[in-house]
Every structure is written in structure tokens, then in C-alpha cells.
Specification:
Layout (H helix, E strand, L loop, with lengths): L6 E4 L7 E4 L3 E7 L2 E7 L6 H15 L6 H17 L11 E4 L10 E5 L6 H6 L5 H25 L14 E3 L5 E3 L12 H19 L5 H11 L3 H12 L4 H12 L1 H4 L4 H15 L2
Parallel strand pairs: 1-5
Antiparallel strand pairs: 2-3, 3-4, 4-6, 7-8
This protein binds adenosine-5'-diphosphate (ADP) and magnesium ion.
Adenosine-5'-diphosphate binds next to strand 2 and strand 6.
């Protein structure tokens, strides 16, 4: 039987295509008459940093997700898992092999993704041209999908359905109004702590929103969250993760952190947690 030959995409040098580099390298490359995004997981993290973080993760969290190959695998798994549950993510061209200098793109250390050109939820909410009612209605629609994902994550006890890097900058608004989620590296694994992870995710999203949207939107956004989130109890658990952490060690660490400069800032996650709690209390059970 003849093996099916993979389509090969060859580059002598990826430098001209560099889109951006955070931890990873992202390239926007010509592909099938359009574009694709090549995400290479061997980023700027030095070997020592990678290993020391990995060691910490292995010891304290039982996870090895700082290793590039693991990060890639986790991201690939999440892309498939999210799509399976009906959440839109970028298409992955698994059927294409990229050949480039190994120093830029080691075999098996990358994903080739559909190129998406769309505003992020963050950009949209910041846009001074858009009326506030329209923003809030899009946001509520987004919250409904957000809470649906949380419900599935909890029901399935599936930590990979948490958006660990999640914030409004990691959600595209597509032309048909749908939402596309991306950047799924590094996900914690314990199936018994899903609600806690979701609590983190909730506060992180809101924290990011309050830092990156105009101030007149802050109260309305928090109120819209309480209105549109499908499960009051789960939403109410989120501030508790920060304000009354369930585990003693965590409680001590958080207590110290909250009293330090970072924690006292009006933009801290503690403060976001307090503001959400106040909105929940005002809304009643
Ligand atoms: N498939 C894509 N199409 C268009 N832009 C993308 C795509 N993937 C990533 N980007 C852009 O690159 C940025 C970084 O991608 P991300 O997946 O978040 O990488 P990292 O894990 O390094 O943060 C995104 O915020 C987005 O602007
Ligand atoms: Mg990112």
C-alpha cells in the first residue's frame, strides 16, 4: 500500500515572515494562495528557565507543560477538544509538513494554523466608534458562550476546557458574529480542581477587561457578566478563589500577596474579585 505523501511547505528562512514573538515564534506564511500561521513552540525561554520552571511544575503541580513539545501537544489536544464540544478554534493543517531550518522550526515542534483576520473582543470593546449598547449586547452573547463552556468543563471534569491564557485578547469576533478562541498552551491537569481553575479564569478575564477597556464600561461590563452568566453559583465561586482560597497554604500566600503593593492596587485581581462579589450581592441569589 502506498503511503499518502504529505503536502510539504518549504522555507529556506522564516525570518521575513515573523509575525511576533512572545514565548513562541509566530510566522505568517504564504499558504495555498492565502496565508497560514506557523506557531513554533521553541521560544525565547532559555533552557535553564525552561527546566527550572518545568521542575517547579513537576514538583508542585504534577505538570510538565513548560517543555516545548508538551506545550505543543497540549495546545493541539485543546484545539481538538474545544472543537468537539462546539467551540470554534483555528483549523490546524495537520496534513501539511513544514520544512525549514531546524533552528527556526524543529520537526514536530510547530503547528500550522488557519490564518484568521478579525478583531479581538478586546479591540472591539475598546473601539470608540461603537455604541455602548451594542458592545454590551455582544459581550452578553459572549458571556453566554463562556458560561456554557464552563458548564461543560465542570460536567466533564475537563481542565483542558479552561482557557488558561484566557482574556479578551484571545478571542476573535468573526464576521458572522461567532467567537473564536485561541492560545491554549499550558493547562493544569487535576480533574478534581476544575471549579477552582474556572474561578481563576473568570477573574483573569474580568481583570484584563477592566484594564483594557474605557472606564465608563467597567460597571456595565461587571453587571452584564452577572446578568448573562448562566450559573450564579459558579460565578460566585470565582471571587472566593481569590478572597477565601480553599486551601490553607494558598490562603496564607494569598493573604500576604493581597496586602503587598500589588494586591492593594485598584487594578489587582483581588480588587476585581471584590467588585464582582459586590455586583453578585447586589443582584441577589
Ligand atoms: N491563526 C492566527 N491568525 C491570525 N493571527 C494569529 C493567529 N494565531 C495567533 N495570531 C496572533 O498572534 C498573537 C499570539 O498568538 P498566541 O497563540 O496567543 O501565541 P502565544 O502563545 O505566543 O501568546 C495573537 O494574539 C494573535 O494576534
Ligand atoms: Mg497569547
Amino acid at each position: 500500500m502506498e503511503a499518502t505523501r504529505k503536502e510539504v511547505l518549504r522555507f529556506d528562512d522564516l525570518t521575513p515572515y515573523l509575525l511576533l514573538k512572545n514565548g513562541n515564534y509566530l510566522y505568517k506564511v504564504p499558504f495555498r494562495g492565502g496565508w497560514a500561521v506557523l506557531k513554533v513552540y521553541y521560544g525565547s525561554r532559555g533552557l535553564l528557565e525552561t527546566w527550572s520552571k518545568s521542575l517547579g511544575n513537576v514538583l508542585f503541580e504534577g505538570q510538565t507543560s513548560y517543555l516545548p513539545k508538551t506545550r505543543r501537544r497540549m495546545e493541539r489536544e485543546c484545539l481538538a477538544l474545544w472543537a468537539r464540544h462546539g467551540f470554534r478554534t483555528m483549523r490546524v493543517y495537520d496534513d501539511v509538513e513544514v520544512e525549514a531550518p531546524p533552528s527556526q522550526c524543529p520537526p514536530g515542534g510547530y503547528l500550522l494554523l488557519e490564518y484568521v483576520e478579525a478583531p479581538t473582543l478586546e479591540q472591539y470593546l475598546r473601539d470608540p466608534e461603537r455604541p455602548q449598547e451594542e458592545k454590551l449586547s455582544v459581550y452578553e452573547r459572549w458571556v453566554a458562550e463562556w458560561s456554557r463552556r464552563h458548564a461543560v468543563a465542570e460536567r466533564e471534569r475537563e481542565p483542558r476546557l479552561m482557557h488558561e491564557n484566557g482574556d479578551a485578547g484571545h478571542v476573535f469576533i468573526l464576521e458572522d458574529g461567532g467567537f473564536l478562541w485561541f492560545d491554549f498552551e499550558m493547562v493544569y491537569r487535576s480533574r478534581s480542581k476544575v471549579r477552582e481553575y474556572l474561578g481563576h479564569e473568570i477573574i483573569q478575564y474580568l481583570w484584563h477587561l477592566l484594564r483594557n477597556t474605557p472606564p465608563e464600561l467597567h460597571e456595565p461590563l461587571l453587571e452584564a457578566t452577572v446578568r448573562a452568566y448562566s450559573d450564579r453559583e459558579r460565578l460566585a465561586f470565582a471571587p472566593r478563589v481569590f478572597l477565601d482560597p480553599p486551601r490553607l497554604l494558598m490562603r496564607v500566600a494569598r493573604g500576604i500577596d493581597a496586602r503587598r503593593k500589588r494586591g492593594r492596587k485598584p487594578t489587582s485581581k483581588y480588587n476585581v474579585a471584590r467588585r464582582l462579589r459586590a455586583k453578585l450581592e447586589a443582584a441577589g441569589p
